[in-house]
Specification:
By secondary structure, the protein is of the alpha+beta class. The chain is built from twelve helices and 14 strands. It folds into two domains: 80 residues; 270 residues, Deoxyribonuclease I, Chain A. The chain is globular, with a radius of gyration of 22 Å.
């Protein structure tokens, strides 16, 4: 009876593995539940490993080989989740950073008034040649980030796409203050051209690009921030509850799932737009961004087509980039075109934002 139960559970696990891989090819706008199985891919793979150990102990040779075959067939997806390189590579060549800075802790989410200064110190220490910021913010008073990046950190060239801005009128005691939110690329190389890949919506999500003059060649750098789930504090509390007690109310879970469904569907269209634009550019190119999606997803599969994932090429471990207690999610990426050699890739594990910066070095 117990053995039969294990047979059923193993069959269910193998079916889940197949469906989670299928999530990369089925548009969530057509059938969105598969996208959640894609998120669960690491857990499903771990379950397959457990069954392999069970069948090894019971010496069920056929079932052991069946599970091993399933893992081998899922390797193209597994390698995007965990990278088995012994090192992150030799850090030589052009250095690029992708970093969602969460507005440099504008509203003091961290409860630490020094967070912005610590972010700037980290950026200075990493000393990237090119930086792609998501959720970038700058103003003319307390958070003069653009001026600081240019004058103090030496990034002479920059290009920003404003997703939202606001003017505060001055008075006798205060100067006018311009607040700007959006995406930004900072570079020590000259920017010769720039532009926007429009998503045609008003959600604040965009894709931008800048052409840089690097070592006598034109390098196009894309920077994108795809649709966020927009979880609020109540959702955060529910996730915290699940991570600690593995239990929460159906009402809270349903609310989170509804938001995830909407965001996943929107990212589908955005990913297709980004892929179409990138594939039309034939020169050397780099794509950085916060995709808000896991590697085993339709979003990742769409954008990565024809590109190299720096983590897959030179990463180590799980490459977790989302600073959350729940999961081992990698949602921040650096992709390189086929004419570029990736030399190293690592995440910088400093919890200053809700994302870790990704550092990559490459050469032509």
């Amino acid at each position: 009876m117990i053995k039969r139960l294990f047979y059923i559970l193993n069959a269910f696990t193998l079916a889940s593995l197949s469906l989670s891989c299928l999530a990369c090819y089925v548009n969530p706008a057509v059938f969105w539940p598969l996208s959640f199985l894609g998120l669960a891919f690491p857990v499903v793979v771990l379950s397959v490993f457990v069954f392999m150990l069970i069948w090894l102990g019971a010496w069920e040779k056929k079932l052991l080989l069946l599970n091993l075959a399933a893992l081998l067939l899922s390797w193209p997806f597994l390698r995007t989740v965990i990278s088995l390189h012994l090192s992150t590579g030799e850090e030589k060549g052009i250095r690029i950073m992708s970093y969602n800075v969460k507005n440099f802790d504008l509203y003091n989410w961290t409860g630490n008034s020094e967070t912005r200064a610590e972010m700037m110190q980290l950026i200075h220490q990493e000393n990237a040649d090119v930086i792609c910021f998501q959720e970038y913010y700058s103003d003319d008073e307390a958070f003069r980030n653009t001026e600081y990046m240019r004058d103090s950190l030496g990034y002479k060239y920059h290009y920003m796409r404003i997703t939202y801005d606001k003017w505060y009128k001055g008075d006798a005691h205060r100067k006018p203050d311009h607040h700007r939110w959006g995406l930004a690329i900072f570079s020590r190389y000259a920017i010769t051209d720039s532009g926007l890949v429009s998503f045609g919506n008003a959600t604040g999500n965009q894709c931008m690009y800048a052409d840089l003059s690097v070592e006598g060649k034109s390098l196009r750098v894309y920077n994108t921030h795809l649709q966020s789930i927009h979880l609020d504090y109540n959702d955060g509390d529910a996730i915290e509850e699940m991570s600690e007690t593995y239990n929460t109310s159906w009402h809270k879970l349903k609310r989170i799932l509804r938001k995830m469904k909407l965001a996943t569907t929107k990212r589908t269209t955005q990913a297709e737009i980004v892929h179409d634009h990138i594939s039309q550019y034939m020169g050397p190119k780099i794509l950085c961004g916060d995709f808000n999606d896991a590697p085993v997803s339709y979003t990742y599969q769409t954008i990565s087509s024809g590109m190299q994932d720096a983590f897959v090429q030179r990463g180590q471990g799980f490459g977790k980039s989302f600073a959350s207690k729940l999961g081992i999610f990698r949602i921040d990426y650096v992709f390189a075109g086929p004419s570029i050699m990736v030399n190293s890739c690592r995440t910088v594990r400093r919890e200053l934002s809700d994302h870790y910066p990704v550092m990559v070095t490459f050469s032509f």
